[in-house]
Amino acid sequence: MKFRELAKYFERLEATTKRLEMTEILAELFKNPQINKDEVDKIIYLCQGQLLPVFKDVVFGISEKILHKAIIDSSSYTSEKITDLFQKLGDYGEVAQELCKGHKQSQGINDVHQKLMDIALASGAGAVTKKVSLLSRLIKDLSSVEAKYAIRIILGRLRLGVGDPTVLDSLSLAKQGDKALRRKLERAYNLCSDLGLVAKILFSKGIRYIDEFKVIVGCPIRVALAARLPNPQEIIDKIGPCAVEAKYDGFRCQVHKDGQQVRIFSRNLEDTTHMFPEIKDAVAEKIKQKKVVFEGEALAYDTSTGKCLPFQVTVQRKRKYDIEQMQRRFPLKLFVFDILYTDSDGDLAQVTYKKRRQIMSQVISDGQVLQKSPFKIVKTAEELTKIFEDALAEGREGIIAKRLEAGYQAGGRNFNWIKLKRTYEDRLSDTIDCVIVGYYFGKGQRASFGIGSLLGCVYDKNNNQFKTVAKIGSGLSEDQLIKLKKILDKIKLKEKPKNVDSELEPDIWVTPKFVVEVQADEITRSPVHTCGKIKDKKAGFALRFPRAVNFIRTDKDAQDATSVAEVINMFKLQGRKS
Length: 578
Description:
Elements lengths: L2 H12 L4 H13 L8 H8 L16 H11 L4 H11 L2 H8 L9 H13 L5 H14 L3 H12 L8 H13 L5 H11 L2 H10 L2 H5 L13 E4 L3 H8 L2 E6 L3 E8 L2 E5 L11 H10 L4 E10 L10 H4 L8 H7 L2 E11 L3 E2 L5 H11 L6 E3 L2 E4 L2 H13 L4 E6 L9 E9 L10 E9 L4 H5 L3 E8 L4 E8 L5 H12 L2 E2 L6 E2 L6 E3 L4 E5 L2 E5 L13 E5 L2 E6 L11 H10 L5
């Protein structure tokens, strides 16, 4: 298929905000006979503004300044003329479209994808010059509509609103005519975090190979998440005898070992291997299996006392530079709590928790860096309460109770795992992870910082939308507000994002990207917020007295934010606190 044809589908997707219509457009695209089997994965990546799955960490490194130079080199326009055009259109994609109006040629999808990869991977001495040259040549080779979307992809501003659920539904619709395959496709996706790979297998090999899909060492598994209940008795009533572990407040790490190669992924699929060299070295040295995948929580600790340090200290280890210096100041321990693959046992995702712990005990030997997370099997609420209180006394966040006979629910949040955290008087027992979708300028002294308050949303998984739940006006320092404005202004938008459902209008809209942790006194009904709001009913849900308790959560993506369903469940739990 020509990239020009794909760009026409992009135009149709851009023109609608209806998820059902997007699903039908994508299904039509995937059924198009012009598509080769080796193009379908690239089409999915490009639809989501990527070149490869997120965990491959391929970035363009192209600023507007570099792009401006490439456009000059590819056209007869002066720098002043291009600046004037950009000020008029406000979008370099539309600028490129205007400059390429006379171009008739069109490139194949594989050709364009490869040229985009060449631009992204250009590095070393003279990398900027090379990127400008490659980009200039690409623009010359594209028709106007192709140039528009290629440039938006390069700048990370495609914004078609095509989320994972929409792609999964459309693949099923294209293959079978309905959405019945969605669950099977989602299971495979949760095991590899690569929608392009799942689609390629579906169309080249068939659904039988999706049914048989297994964990792949090197491809991160979308992490299992815990549901909430308000007290020990309800946990025992819900899942019966269970294993109880401490809930650690650190970095969730999924470790993949393949021979001597070790990779560490965060909960949002980011490759963090270079940030945690002591974990990488310990795995390479201590783990005897050739291939293994396991999960744990990394915490900084005090070398003189051996005690773990607060998250505010641990988070300083998440950095690109001065890693060795920070490693000496704040070394890490990885508390391993689950295992998902070994070369001798294969895929363990469907194996019971009880059996996985047995296998884990054979693979992981406690050392200075790697330590098995302690657990205890309990049968009564009294036993669970004692462990919970001991965990709090040791400075832990709380506990996680796990169903003994359950498999590992990749990418899911259910009652196989249940978390119980410290309850504070007159406030919610848990924080809410909100996605920032806009900000208000504020008045008085706040106006000098540029941000008075944030518009926060939670995530509706059913329709891939962000629903408003709070205006967050406190909790961040002056320095943090100034820093946050600089960060948000890089992703500000002229109008409300397509995947945001809001009846409120902030002064500045931004791309839903960054997550902030919020504490509130309670969840209340609200006529102005859209979280949980049903068309025929007036009230949604909102946070009462929300305040930020941490700066941007770099370990979470927008889709990892608290869900609408969780907020509704927490609202129901408010009346059942012990």
